Amino acid sequence: MSTTRASNARLVRQRKLNTKQGLRIIRESEIEEQADDEGQRHIQQVETGVEKGEEIEYHLQAVINASNAAALGAKPAGAQSYIPTPEASRAKGVKYDELYPKVFKEPATYIRFSSTVEDCIPVAYCMNDNDAAFLSKLNDGKDADGRDRKGADKLSQCSEDTFEEVMNFFEETSARMQPFANVDNAPILSLEEMEQSVQEDDDRVSAEAHKWLKPVYKYWVLRKGSRPLMPSIKVRVLDTASDADDADPYVCFRRREVRQTRKTRGRDAQVVEKLKKLRLELEQSRQLVQLVVQREHLNKENLETSRKVFEQRKQLKEVKISKGIVGDKGDDEELLVNQKPMIKIKSRQDTAQGQRPATIRIRSGGDRSAPDNDLPLLDDFRAEAEQFVANTIEARKEQHKKWNQHWVDETKYPITPPLEESDPMLKWANFPPTGLYPTPPPSLPSRSSQEGDTGDVDMKDAPPPPEAEADAQPGASFDEPDHIFHMPGTYPPSGAEAYDAPKRDAHPACRLRYGRGGRYYLESRKRKPRGQISSGVVSDSDSDDDYGPEYFPVSEHIIFDYRATLNSRPTRPEGVAGSEPRQRPLSSGEQSAMAGAGGHGHPAMQQVAAGGAG
Amino acid sequence: MAPRNDVKDGAHGSDEPKAESGYATLATLRIGVKAMVEKDGVKRKAEILSMQTRKGRPTFYVHYEEFNKRLDEWVAAERLDLSQEVEWPAPDKSEAKSKQKTAQSKAQQVSKAESRAQPSRSHKRPRSATATRETSETPVDFSVKPSRRPSQQGGKENRDPTVTVATEDIGGTPQPEDESTFDLVDMQEASIAAKAAPNHAPYSREEEIEKLRTGGSMTQNQTEISRVRNFERIQMGRYEIEPWYFSPYPAEFTDCDLVYICETCLCYFGGSTQFIRHRKKCTLLHPPGNEIYRDDNVSFFEIDGRRQRTWCRNLCLLSKLFLDHKTLYYDVDPFLFYCMTFRSEHGHHLVGYFSKEKECGEGYNVACILTLPQHQRKGYGKLLIQFSYELSKIENKLGSPEKPLSDLGLLGYRAYWQEVIVDLLVEREVDGAPMISVEDLGQALAMTTNDVLHTLQNLNMLRYNNKNHVIVLTDAAIAQKERQKAKESVKGRRVIEADRMSGWRPPVFAASARTWNW
C-alpha cells in the first residue's frame, strides 16, 4: 500500500488549487479515467468545525460515513441514518386555546414593536398553589395562620389580580430597598416601611391593592426567604473582580467589560474637540446660573429697598399725624402703598415736566419704573407744565421760522417713502424716553440729525454723491442699530471731528429736509445765487475735500433716479453722518433754539431746557 | 466498545495510566466509574456522572461513551451490568498516591452527600464527561484536566498522528491517502490563511473566558459542558420536550417535574397555577421586535439583545437546553436575534432562531442557531440557514457559522451548502457557461471560500482531471438533487424569498450601543 501511494504521489503531483481561477464544471461521465483514480476514491478528511471530542460520536460518524459513501457513488443503504434526539411530543391535557386565546389579527404590514417583556406583563408576580389557598382563606375572613381576621367584613373580596399586585409590590419594594438581601441577610422590611414606600410614590399601588397591604403582609413575611419568591436567574449583582461566581453554573449573563478602542491621533483629536465643547457648554451654563443668581440678588435688593421706602413713608405718615398735617382724602393711603392710582399721578407729573400730552402715551411705560418723586406739589407742576408747553411752542415756532427763512422748498413731486423707510422713524419714536422729550420730532433736516445727538433739530448739506453712498453701504447696515439705540447723553466718537471740520465751512446750496412721515424735502437756499443748481446735484466723491462744492446742472430724469436711490438706501454710513451735525457751524440763534426745544441732546442741554422751563 | 478503547489505550503508549478495572457492587459504585449500561438493547460503556436515590432505589445519571451528551440519562440500577468489570476513575494527579485508597472509600460518602445537593456541587466535580473523554483520546491533555479543550480547527490537526489513529479506529471506512491529504492540506491552509485563522493552540480556562469577554463569542464554556441536565421536561405551547443539556435556569426549578415556558415571552414557571396566572396577564403575541420578513409560512423578527434584554435572556436560557456549545457566561447585549415564527390565530409561534454578533471580528454571520426540538425535521433549519445567508448577501459580506458546530449543526449546514452549490452549478451548466471559480461560488452564495471548498471536497466534487482542477457534478449529487425535488413536489417547497425582505437594512449601531457594558 505504501509503495502505491508513493508512486501515485510522484505521478500526479497536483498543482495547488487557485480559488480565483475558473474551474470547469463537468459531469462524472466526462472524467477521463486516470491512473490515480484510486486516490480519488475517498472523501478528503475535511475540517468539519465540530469539536474533535464530538466529531467521533457514534451517530454523527454514522451519518457522515453514509453521506461519504453516497458521494463516492455507493447506493444509499436502506434506512437513512440520523442523529437521535430526546423526545419532543404533543403534551396531553394542555388546554391550549384557553392558555393562548385566539386573539391575533395579522396586520397588513410588517410588525414593528419595541415594548419589552416587562411592558407586556403588568404584574410580574404570579400566584402559586399556596397563594391560592391563602387567598381563599383570606376571602373567607381568615388570617394567614387560620385565625379569624378582625374587621374582615369591612373588606370586600380580594381578587387574584389585587393579591398579585400586593405581593408584587412587596417583592419589588424589598428588592429595591435591600438589593443585597441574599448576601447580607438583611431583616425583612416592616409593614411601616412598606407603607412609607407607598407614600413616597403613589403610583406604585392602586387604591384597591393598598387596602390589602396589611392582611397580605403577614403571609408574605411567612413565605419570604432571602431569594425572591418568583425564581429568577442569577445575575452577578455585585460587580466584583472576584472569581467567586465564576464556577457557579447558575450565574449567567455577566456584563462584559468595555472593549478597548484603539488610540489614534484622529480619535485623540475628536476627544479633545468633544472635551472643548463640553467645557464651553459647561462654562455657558455656569454663566447662566451666575446671571440668574445676580438677578435674584437684584430682586432681593429691590424688595429691600421697596420695604425701606414703605417704612420711611410710614414714618412720614406718623410725623404728619403727630404734626397734625392733614392731606387730601386718601393721601395717606397713597403714601403708604404704591397703588395703581399712583400711576395716574405720575403721568400728571410728567405732563407737568413739560410734555405734550401726545407723548405721554409713549412714555408711560417707562415712567412706571421711574423712581417715585416724593411729595410733589401737583398744582405747581401743572402750572409749570402749562407754562413750559406754551414756551416750547413759541420757541418751536421761532425755530422753524429761523430754519426756513433762507430756504425754499424745491421739491417737485414729493415721494412718499416706501414702507421700510418709515421704520427708522417709528424706532426713533420709541426712543428710550428716559430723558426729556419735548416734542415729537420736528422736521428733521436729515437722518444724520437723528444719528447725531446734538439735538433733534439739525440741517444737512447737500446729499452726498451717490457713489459715496454706494461706497459706504456695507458699513451702513450694521451701523444703523447703533443710532437707533443710541442713548441720549452719549457723544459720538470725537476723533472724527477734526477730520470732517473743513467740509462744514462751505455754505450748502441746498438741503435735504427730513420731514414728518419720513418725507424728504429738497430745499435750496433762498439767497444762494444764480441757479447754479436748480434741479439737483451730483458731486464727485473726491470733491468732498474741496471747499466749494461744484455743482453741475443735471437733467431731470437723473434727479428722479437719484431720489429713487435715496429712498431705496435709507441709511448712511456712520463715518460721515454721525459726525456731521457736530461740525456744522451753528449760529447762536440756532443753538439757543435748539436749547429751547430741549431736544434729546446731551444732558447739559436738557438741563438748560428744564431750567428754562422751570 | 471496550476492545476499541483497549486499542486506543495501546496506541497512546505508556504515558497514559491504565484505567484501573475491577468488579463493583451497587454500593461501591461512585461518580466517575465507567460501567456497561444497557441502551436500546445494546450494552454500552457509560460513565456515571451523578447518583440519586429515588423512591428508595438508586438511580444513576450516565453518559454513554461516544454518544452525544443529549442522550445522557437517568437509569435504574437494573440497567447497569455489574457482571462485567467496571473502570475506576483514574486518580487525580494532584492527589498523592498514598491517599488513593482512603480516598476511594471516602469518595463514596462524599458522592452520596453530593448527589443530594446536586446543582451546587457540580462545579466541584472535576470528573466530567468531556474531560474524561479528552483524557482517553488525547493523552497529552491529561495532566491539565478540564481546563483544556482539544484544539478544534486547522489543517495541521489533520497530520496529528493520534487523531488519525482515532478516526481510523472509529470510522472503519477507508481513510484518506496520505498523498492526497497533503495537497488538500495545502488547499485548506491557503483558504484558511485568507480567513485569518484563529489561534488553535489549546488554551486555558482563563484564556477562554478572556476570549469570551473580548471576542463576543457565545459558544463554549468549559465549566458548563459537563453538567447534568437540570430539567426533566419542559412544556412549551402544545408540546412537552425533554431538554438535552443543562441550562442555568433558576436552581429552584431543579426539583420541578415539569417546567412551564410561555410560548410568547419565554418566561419560565415551576407550577401550572403560576403559569396559568401568567398566561392570563401576558399580552405578548409575537417576539418583541420588528418583523423583517413574512411569507406564506413564516415570519422573521429582528431583536436587539440590548433593547430586549429579558426576552433575549429567556431565549438564550431556552436554547441552552438544546445547545451544548452555547455559553451564557456573558450577557446578550452584543447580539441580534433573528427569530423565525409561524402564524396562527393564537399569534406567532417561535420555531427557531439564530443569533448574530452586531459586529463580528471573525466575520461569522451566525453565532448560535437552533430549531426548537418540537419543530425539528420539518425543513425549518434550512430556512434559518438560508435566511442568515440572505442577510449576508444584503450586507454584501461572506458569512460562516461560528465554530464549533454541533453535530446537528454540521449536518444542517452541509445539507444546505450541498443544495445551494449543486443548484448553482447545475444552473451554470444549463446556461452553457460551465466555468466557475471557488471564490465566485462563494460570492454568489455569500459563503466563505473555505466553506465552499469544504463542501466541494466533502462531496468529492473537486477533482483533478487532465492536469487541471475541475468541479464534478457527481451522479450522487445529482441524485440527491432529484430526491430533494421529488420531496418538494410532494411537501411543497419552502424557501426564503429574498425580495420580501427588500426593506431590510443592516442595523447600524452607534458606538455607545456597541459597547458591552450596561
Shape of chain A: flat
Number of strands of chain B: 21
Unreliable spans of chain A are 1-10, 341-371, 429-505, 528-546, 572-614
The total count of strands of chain A amounts to 5
Largest interface: A-B, 116 and 177 residues
The overall pLDDT of chain A, averaged over residues, is: 68
- Based on secondary structure, the structural category of chain A is mainly alpha
Distance between the termini of chain A: 136 Å
Helix proportion of chain A: 40-55%
Q: Beta fraction of the residues of chain A?
A: under 5%
Describe the fold and architecture.
Chain B: It is an enzyme of class 2 (transferase). Chain B: One of its GO terms (cellular component) is nucleus. Chain B: One of its GO terms (biological process) is DNA repair. The complex is a heterodimer of chains A (614) and B (518). Chain A has 614 residues and is mostly helical. Helices cover 49% and strands 4% of the residues of chain A. Chain A has 25 helices and five strands. Chain A has helices spanning 2-11, 52-55, 58-71, 96-99, 117-120, 129-139, 160-177, 181-184, 191-200, 207-211, 213-223, 265-323, 331-336, 340-352, 357-369, 378-404, 422-429, 447-451, 466-484, 495-505, 556-568, 574-577, 580-583, 588-597, 603-613; strands at 22-27, 88-90, 407-409, 510-514, 520-525. The radius of gyration of chain A is 50 Å and the shape is flat. Mean pLDDT of chain A is 68; it is low at 1-10, 341-371, 429-505, 528-546 and 572-614. Chain B is an alpha+beta fold and 518 residues long. Helices cover 36% and strands 20% of the residues of chain B. Chain B contains 16 helices and 21 strands. In chain B, the strands form six sheets. In chain B, strands 5-4-3-2-6 form a five-stranded antiparallel beta sheet. Chain B has a five-stranded antiparallel beta sheet with strand order 12-13-14-15-17, sandwiched between helices. Classes of the chains: A mainly alpha (614), B alpha+beta (518). At the A-B interface, helix 1, strand 1, helix 2, helix 3 and strand 2 of A face helix 4, helix 5, helix 6, helix 7 and strand 9 of B.
